[in-house]
Design a protein that fits this description.
Elements lengths: L3 E2 L7 H33 L3 H35 L6 H12 L3 H22 L20 H31 L10 E2 L8
Antiparallel strand pairs: 1-2
Helix pairs in contact: 1-2, 1-5, 2-3, 2-4, 2-5, 3-5, 4-5
Length: about 200
């Protein structure tokens, strides 16, 4: 059997910096989006509707400022890394997938979340003058249209959105570790009977 080389040419410092920045930005983006659904939303669900709506709006406004630029930065870096690879190679395909997946949070938000986003923004606006502790302010709301019910829908969609940069991060990470160096020794891994010498 043949040996499998486990060393590769060391990438330049600029490539390594790009890889680290791209991975960090996309991983942070996936984590920050996902953490809202599994950490922030459960806390918001304990709040009365006026407070819930106000806090959700703050989270939403901060997210729409921070998330798109991070997605664009990651996509640009992964696109640049793909450009350096031979077309059709596995690393080209992985970097390209990452460059497409990470910024796809924007169309996902526009096409899948805009309705619930609009309804929650309307709630935040209509409940802005209500007492933050008023638990009965939505007593006449239609089924499925309370702030709490809308937030549940939003959290599920948001969790789905977090998977896009997560999968993009994993794809780029795989492309990065596909080429690696072991202590600069040029070692090789022997398989089968060859491993015995």
């Amino acid at each position: 059997m043949n040996s499998i080389p486990i060393s590769a040419t060391r990438p330049s410092t600029s490539i390594r910096v790009a890889q680290v920045v791209g991975l960090t930005a996309s991983a942070y983006l996936a984590g920050s989006i996902g953490s809202i659904s599994w950490q922030s939303v459960p806390a918001l669900m304990d709040a009365p509707a006026p407070l819930l709506a106000k806090q959700w709006k703050k989270i939403f406004d901060q997210g729409k400022v921070a998330a798109p630029p991070m997605a664009v930065i990651s996509a640009a870096i992964f696109g640049g890394l793909a450009y350096r690879e031979p077309v059709g190679s596995s690393n080209f395909n992985l970097y390209t997938a990452a460059a497409l997946l990470v910024p796809s949070i924007v169309p996902y938000t526009v096409f899948l979340m805009s309705t619930v986003n609009s309804k929650l923004q309307e709630k935040a606006s209509s409940l802005a003058s209500a007492s933050l502790t008023d638990t009965a302010v939505e007593s006449g709301a239609a089924e499925g249209e309370t702030a709490h019910e809308l937030l549940e829908k939003w959290a599920t969609l948001n969790l789905g959105r977090s998977l896009l940069p997560l999968i993009g991060t994993l794809a780029a990470g795989w492309a990065i570790v596909d080429k690696f160096e072991v202590l600069g020794l040029g070692a090789s891994l022997k398989l089968g009977a060859d491993r015995m010498g």
